[in-house]
Amino acid sequence: MVVAADEKAQAKGEQIVGKAKKTVGGAVGNESLEAKGKDEESQGDLSAAKEKAKDAIKPK
Fold this sequence. Notes:
Elements: H1 2-28, H2 31-57
Helix pairs in contact: 1-2
């Protein structure tokens, strides 16, 4: 389904952006940016897990 693919892509995007912010924040010593990155990465992880769960219960 197209919507599921979009949601999966969005979750992956959140993971990537969050990881980048976390890495940059840590490298420059910006704790706020690092924390925001960790939060966004976690949101992406949760969204990806939700999509996997939906796929697991979907009838084939």
